[in-house]
Queue: 2 jobs
Job 1
Amino acid sequence: MNLWKTLGLLVAFGLLLAYSLIYEKGEAPDPDADRSVVELMGLKGADSVSEVSVQGASGTFTLLRQPADKTAKPAAGAPVEDAWEITAPVKAKGDSTAINAYVKALLTTKVQSHYREEDAAKLPDTESGLDKPTKSLILKDDKGKTATLLIGGQTPGRDGYYARVQGKKDLLVFTQYFVDENIANKKLGDLRDKTLLAFSSGDVKKLTLKYPARSITLEKRGEGWVIAGKPELPADSSTIDSMLSTLTSTRIEEFVDPMTEPGTHGLDRPRVEVILGLGDKGENGLLLGDSKQEMPDPAASSPDQMPQEKLYVQRKGDTEILLVQGTLYDTLFKNESDLRDKTVMALHPESATRLEYTLDGKSVLLEKAAPAGKPNEPATWQLRQPQTLPADQKVVEDTLSDLNLLRATAFHDNPVSLAPFGLVKPRGRMVVTESGKALPALLIGGTTADKANAYVMREGGTTVMEVRASFVDDLELEPNRLRDLMVAKLDRAQFKHIALRQANGDLLTLKAVGADAWEVEKPEKKKADPGRVAAVITALTDVHADEYVTDKATDLKVYGLDKPTVTATVTLSDGRKETIYAAQDPQGGLGAYLKRKGHDAIYKSDNGLILTDLQKKSTDFEPLPEPSMPMGMPPM
């Protein structure tokens, strides 16, 4: 064995001997071994600490306590917490919740082992790493007293760290987790306030978005917004509110260290500059620079997770560079058309009392009034043109709702000619009256080349808008699709018995046996799943058609109703029975013809889904299987 190997073995033997003398001598436990960090450092208690300085692998940072106003009223159930300010290496606002939790863990952690001077002397500082400590914790209390905890190297088992209070000779051992998590590897960014921009959306009076070759300025007008310019254009308040909400909720992901990530990261030529005008509160703002792809932390994500886009930003008047989620750029990169108010007709469907429209030479007029001959009944929609009939409430309400929700997809301002848009002689015109006042009429022109959009314009306006062509195509013009199309309307709470007879004679009956409890009676008696029964009840509660076919059929065979596909009979709690006949279109179409027993009128459903809802077998009502529980979970 050569000399170097011999010396190495002797050193290793010496370390093990010192370790065994300290750790394994079998002496009575030291009563000081259960003391907390703050006690060992000779301070009164955690609440007395006013300043904390931590030296770790990434440098030194200092936290300064700002005592809370004890007279302040906290939120319900929330304690009054002290605030903390970061004073070094940068002066910054701290995340008080995170810092209070961190400081509590830091100061109240118990020492793992505590060895008095005579035992500590058996392990030289050169072996414990306390001759040249690279980590430390410095505490200052509210009386100005300062104490320092020096952290040395790891114990031979590498499950702890040696430590010593400066000025004392006792040897302390803290767990590896405590030192690594709270001192050695603690990042200042974990304790900083992650708020990107501190402002209230309600305070914003002006929003400017500057891009390399253009800019957009938005100004608050009452409860709404306008795009500044000549002329001013109404802006989409919901889009702007969403942008402001995103700015207030975006959190800082990372504080960029200029030593490890030098450069301007595109912030000397920002892709977007955001300026928030806050009235008498001044301005706030943000620069958006380059993006970068960042792989997620393998320990906190699945192996197949995709890289995440992060965005370099810088706050107005600040030199610090920050990283946020890359989606912020998409939220703030807008064209003027993105921000314009896209409302085609601003109406309140519930206040509408009249709807009239013409299209391709056909006219429709609907009014909300009491039914003919029944002046004391509530007003409902009545068809006045092209015939006088009770109107279908759902069709009218859906039309008004669609018109209210209709949004422009493109704008053509001040066109030289209306001819290319088919608006010299409009194809159609719509007018809605609310509480006796007619809203500006909407003129309907031609379509785009691909037929996807239609051109419309407010009467007297100067802007042509594009809207989805399906809105125009779906306008009902025929009285048989505008008149009352309710085949039957039943109260689902009164359902007591349901009989479904198929064309082949098969009969299925369901019986209510309690609140929301049903059973199959025929063909065999068994429990029925209430959720599956509810689907049938829903289909029979409001039987609504899409077209009124005829007042009375001379031959039911023409509609397949001589031998219905399904005959559904509902017995109600008052003993009344209602029967609905539904038949597949004999011509092979998707629709179904409908008729109510005791009534001559025949209706048609365009999609025939009612047949699917009512063509049932007893097996369709078997209770759903209980969801399987994960291992170790108790049953529900």
Job 2
Amino acid sequence: MALLLVVLFLFLRLPFFRSLIQRPLVGKRKAHLILWFGLLAVAGTQASAVITAGSALSSAPVLSNVPLAPVQADQAVVTLAGMSVIGGGLVGGLPVGLAVGAIAGMHLLTLGGMAAEINAITMVLTGLLTGWLVQRSGESLLSGRWAFVVAFFVTLLAGGALVTHLHPDDGPVRFLEGTVLPSAIVNALAAAVFMEMLRTVSREVEEVALETERALKLSEFTLSQLQQGLNADTGRAIAEVFMTELKTLAVTITDNKSVLVHVGIGEEEYPPGRLVHTKGSLKALETGKLQVVYRHEPYKHSYLDKILRAAIVIPFSCSGQVIGLLKLYFYRSQDIRPYEIGLAQGLGKLISYQLSLLETEKKSLLLKDAELRMLQAQINPHFLFNSLNAIVSLIRTNPSLARKMMVQLADFMRMNLKMMEMPLVSLEEELRHLRAYIDIVQLRFADRLTIRLEVEPGLNNFRIPPSTLQPLVENSIQHGLKDISEGGSIVLSIARDGNGVQVRVTDNGSGIPESLLNRIARQQLPSQKGNGIGVHNVSQRLTSLLGGESQLVFSNLAEGGCEVRFFLPEPKEEVVNDESDDR
């Protein structure tokens, strides 16, 4: 029996066996559990004793690993398989207990002897009764006390049935006192020990799950605070949660020079701003490695020396540089288990990773903002260059018109500067900006072209990058209508399309060469007029701010001319005004 418990203990240390008792018993897992306990039952029978009717035990338990030879007709096997059958029923319930009992019973039938049939029946009934009692209890794992009661009751019944069948010469009562009752007690104790081992394994797994959940909770909370930046307020919130969850006496968070916050015992002695000075902290800052201090340096305060005797110093870094420490204080060195050290290492890496990630995101946003501002800045000189060229050409031929263009250009640029402060503006503002541009163009090309706006009402809340429409209209004038001396037409249509708005700019010009249609929005193309920045710039800003579905699409019209279109998605609810925080 002791050997069987040792084997069971070794099985419980196997990850495979642990997974069997922790997961729902369905399909292959249930079959594996039946196989394991069935093999143990067979092994228990091989380690059994043989009794001859009318005499005492005739032989010592057979411990061979090979099957027992068939026993004589006047002999019976007193099997130890009952413990394995009971174990299967206690762990797997009725189906497993019944199946293991059947395996043990069939093995006993193959051995024969005067008690073969009654042994086989009692094994099946043992598994059936044990599984049924467990199922009735409603518990996944019985306590050791209940396992003792169940095993004692079942073993006593099985032994009593065997004694009644054998009728030994010494009498059933004497046999019961000499064999069955001690066997029932031993089986019950073994079952209780086995169940307590199972419950210990189960608690270990549950504790691991709880510790994992705790670590995830700490990580999630720490991340939410770090997203606001590491300062005294967020540091205090992190320290308080760490002290509560890890049951530490105190927690300190520092930067690479001084204390940000100290929470817990000794808070008065560690005010914010106090320089980092202990050897463990300085070494962690220097090496970037976790330090475990088992005998903390004296605080020059007797009560602190007696209470804060051990600590874990966790460095955290950003972009490869150590920028601070998280210090967890404990009462004694025995309180710092491998679990605390492992958790501290993991948290240090997690905090460092999150800080580096936040720094990378911040730099990425700054870079994207800088790129967008550079693109927006390119629009201004591009349009200004073209407009000034037009004014220069008018100064000699029509000075009055040139002066009027200068005044309207000044108004346009004033409006343009205000809009360029924002990444997105309302469609209403963008149309107002475009009309100011059209007023300038009409002064010069009044007899040459007409520009018509067809805008569906109720779309003013849609958002668009500033100076998007004006470069497209200008592109039609400069390139699409360059060879048309009169009758030129440009139409801007804006209409709802599904969950957004479709914007189209069409002209009746010469169209675009087929070789350029798929390239014009994706790359900057040189041109004789201007520098080729305008259209490519617009496409880049649309895709950066609104997504790939807003990219410019160019096509030639069957009746002549060109069309450029793009899509504006439904505005997000949080975008409710045109003001910018970047001014």
